[in-house]
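Methods: holo model generation. Sequences were used as deposited, without trimming of termini or removal of tags, and paired with ligand SMILES retrieved from the corresponding compound records. Each pair was processed once, and we did not select among multiple samples. The sequence and copper (II) ion SMILES for this entry were:
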Amino acid sequence: MIRTFTASLALASLVGSAGFAETFEVQMLNKGSDGERMVFEPAFIQAAPGDTIKFIAADKGHNAEISKGMLPDGADAFKGKINEEIEVTLTEEGVYGVICKPHFAMGMVMTIAVGDAEVPDTFFEGRVPPRAKARFDAQLENL
Ligand SMILES: [Cu+2]
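and the model returned the structure below.
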């Protein structure tokens, strides 16, 4: 009896938290509303574990993928194809660095913070072009 009761409670809390999960939409654009070229908009999202991010191919020629190593331990990387609209649900707390592969050097990057996120020391360990680094730095100011 007790075990059954506990299981029902756990299920109820799962259903409850799923009910509050949010979906954020990110536009992949040749030109942002501030006039900047090759951008994800918004460029920074604060999400909660279990929230979904949907990348919209508003303009052609872009993709969304995790930059190598820029994700929390235990999280799954994702990699969209060019012009592909993808939806990813992020369950691990931490900082996720997303890039558009064709425009990485032009600084087409964005940051997603999930839960109580801190930037790990290893975040910039991989190859990050200067313009991408500058935008990441600005986005990380939000933390
Ligand atoms: Cu792009």
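The pocket of copper (II) ion is lined by residues 38, 62, 100, 102-103, 108 (CB under 6 Å).
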